């Protein structure tokens, strides 16, 4: 999405969150985790730039590795059902987790993470710095993958292992081919420029579904200021054979994060219209979807966010639970939420910065990577991310 030049104080005391944590995850299986240490930067790497994270309750800057005060069970992990047995039946997403870790820092606004299993690395956008970063999980090495990136935002991966990128200043969707060349796959609809593609997901048939709000053309911090040419802020589908683009939903205020359920029978789309006015939505909507035809129907609100906070990006795990970012409002809500497929809140991960987006990674797809403003965070979970990124 977009980020102001002056980040708010994102202080969070895990003990002060709205849900009772005194009996948080009692009896959860301990799972060893190792703090990630940044390697000395080479000529092609990016130094951590000091500890530049948003301020916390401590006067000391945030370190790399587990967040300060972490212990079993980590108080940054909050179950929505502490009155039950405090095991996997309460919050299966957190069964067997260790501490939330801060694995890299030094960014202006981290967004759009995607995991490449073949290389064991995460790519993510640093939008104002006009670059895509690469974090290698095998040794903690951080480097620049692409600069300039056309103020890239959301990233995903297609079924052939190619990077799909939403570009603000390019006002387009691109594909990075296996030889490194870049192909423009969508930049216009009905002969007019797209607004500023924000997030995308690739279906099993190869079709690319993406959102197109106006955040990237609202100023010069995360793109190039321009007037929108599209009358509405739409959700689009690109046909994998013809390349034709069509509107699948046209009634969003600001469509943002997008993902499918594991069986591709549900399409989830975030509306961050609240950024445009207090009466606008801050929620996730869900639709019945036929991926092959592009037909979307029976839209309804899946989960409301606690205003003034909003959600920005999301992913599903193999059981269809929805994991979404939270930020921009109450610092006590900054982090990640996890919902059942029926929209019931299961729990939260508290992060000391506004969170924009997330993805599952790791060799078992059980490590959640979290883009939190100036830093990249990670936590091992008791679930696996769905195959669709």
UniProtKB/TrEMBL annotation:
Domain of life (superkingdom): Bacteria
Cofactors named for this entry: Zn(2+)
PROSITE patterns: TAT (PS51318)
KW Zinc (keyword) present: yes
InterPro entries registered for this protein in UniProt: 6-blade_b-propeller_TolB-like (IPR011042), SGL (IPR013658), SMP-30 (IPR005511), SMP-30/CGR1_Lactonase (IPR051262), TAT_signal (IPR006311)
Swiss-Prot/TrEMBL keywords: Hydrolase, Metal-binding, Zinc
GO MF assignments: hydrolase activity; metal ion binding
Amino acids binding substrate: 198
Domain SMP-30/Gluconolactonase/LRE-like region: 109-371
UniProt key word Metal-binding: yes
Binding site for a divalent metal cation: 111, 256, 312
Record note on cofactor: Binds 1 divalent metal cation per subunit.
Active site (UniProt): 312
Protein name from the UniProt record: Gluconolactonase
